[in-house]
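P.,

For your records, the input lines for the assembly:
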Amino acid sequence: MLMTPAHPEPPALALEIRDLRKAFGRPAVDGLDLAVRSGEFYTLLGPNGAGKTTTLRMVVGLLRPDSGAISVLGIDALADPVAAKRLMAWISDEPMIYDKLTPFEYLEFVAGLWGIAAADAQARAEDLIGWLGLGPHAHERCEGFSKGMRQKVALAGALVHAPRLIILDEPFTGLDAGSARQVKSVLREHVAAGGTVIMTTHILEVAERMADRIGVIARGRLIAQGTLDELRRQAGHGSSTLEDAFLALVADEAA
Amino acid sequence: MSAPATLTWFARHEFRLAWRDGLAMMTAGRRTRARTLVIVFTVFAVFMHGMAFAVVSRFAEVTGSDKTMLVVVTGSLLLAFALLLSQAMESVTRVFYARSDLDLLLSSPAAAERIFAVRVGTIALSVMAMAALLAAPFVNVLAVLGGPHWLAAYGALVAIGAAAAAIAAVATTAMFEIIGPKRTRLIAQIVAAVIGAGFVIALQLAAIVSTGTLSRLTLLASEPIVAVAPGVDSALWLPARAVFGDPGALVAMIGASLLLLGASIALVAPRFAGCAVAAAGVAGAATRQNRRSAFRPATPAATLRRKEWTLLRRDPWLMSQTLMQLLYLVPPAFLLWHSFGSGAEVVLVPVLVMAAGQLAGGLAWLAVSGEDAPDLVATAPLGAAEILRAKTEAVLGAIAMVFAPLTIALALASPFYAAVAAVGVPVSAVSAAHIQLCFRAQAKRSHFRRRQTSSRIATFAEAFVSIGWAAAAALAANEMWVAAAFPAVMAVGILAAARYVSPHKG
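Structure tokens returned:
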């Protein structure tokens, strides 16, 4: 039902970052390279302050890098940010919604910002509202909503313009189990339909169960990436869980 | 170092926060800014003193034995008091609703009344400082020309500020307890606005009826008022006598107002915590909007404009602001009706221009700094300039909706005045909106304190630019073209200065 429209020849890479740097006094992102394939569910892990959020904010155009290159589905995001933004959706841990708008009005607004034809947008919006269980509250102002409801409204907003790449920063912060499951299944659906998801999370279990590949960032650089098995092997010392592998990798880097 | 959680300890904490906020605001995080800032302020101070000289120099030799002057000074003090009261009420409400650190403070075992006592004290200090700053040029000019006894006026103003803060704290807390937290915010804003505006307006209405002009001094100095007023020995003139430098009156006034402030702090501080907790529970009930069945097609820019209009329509702050602006329009409208066709409607021109600037500034702040989802809009496939343009258009559209009918009504009386207003209103609105764009700072919860302080420069710049354009429009409406150029140049100058010190270059 929630399909990302099929694209004839999707570029092989949904996101390609080369030698990205950004310093706030001291380096936050320090020569980061990253490549995420089209149709992949990619999770970024890293200790607090590793540069995950800074990196993703540069990708979606909220921060200007000091140097480096970012390419989104074959488009140079630094040279033509508007064209790149057209293909992306950004969801932060703080839902970007309006207290004085209803979910219905919010989806109309977001679709309008992305220039989606009203009829198409409405069909998608109604699907999303139904699927995320927002139906009973679709015409209530968001001001009284719980954190989970707000995050679901934000997610619906991100999906209403049919992005090919969804980037999420800690989407599960403060969500209850039911809401988290709904969000997860929406994201899986997006990948199944050929879309790409890039997500940061602190919840290793989510990364373990959902991600096709996992990247580990520490001190502003990518220190390891691969499937869960590959990471385990790389970490060595008989790491059996992602938690073991993650802690071993980060500890190696710090040493 | 004082013991934790005592009154002085909290005072140190508040002072440190205020100091860092102020420093950050002044220098915008850079040290090189300090020097240019000093230059800008010096130029501004010299300009204000020049203006004060033009207004009050002929009063320097006046003394408290002249009853007419007692009436005029008392009236002016009352006006200042009303203004300070409205400012203080707004600040007190903000203490309840600005939740930046209240959750931390209220969940700590520290005595909440101490922190609130300090905060009311801080409000009183800032209101007193504002009174002294605004009056400084006038007092200084009088003191130089008429003698140092005029410096007593500073003391009188500080006393008035303290009294205003005391009354505001009691009134707002009482309102919280009587009508509940749910409506207090809106009502406090409206009441603050109306108190500020109401007094000026009432005086103006009376002045129109009695003399046909809009000067409040004219009414206060008029024969009938002076005749009904009590004799020069009445206690009613105590504050005015303090301004004229009577030491006994000054001491009595300062003592009384400080006592009032102390009493009000003692009375309300223990209740503040309850009010703040109640304020936190306000955002609960669901508001249903009318069910719309279909998305309306629109370009991205039109979508943004429409969203701004929807949010403005649903904003209680805006309601109070618009109400206040409309209230200010009452006296000139009354004048128009009172003396239709006599040419007196020329007064409407500067009032419209001034109101347009003020309203546009408020709307622009809401649309740009008050954006709830800045990251959403920033990640949309639109250029930054395009976004700002759409938002500015939304503001100007709203201004046009309010002021077009008024300008058309004016055209019925005088097409020439209407033409001047039709030029002045958009110029003033664009200027005020531009200042808000220059000082835009995302009004996120975490930036709340910063926003309050950083918007203060913008507020002053906006007010003076609006005044400049209003003066230019007034002179232009009187066909004094050369004279009109001066306030216009002043407005442009302030605009340029605001742009220069601002974090964004518009």
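Two observations worth noting. Chain A has nine helices and ten strands. The mean pLDDT of chain A is 85.

Regards
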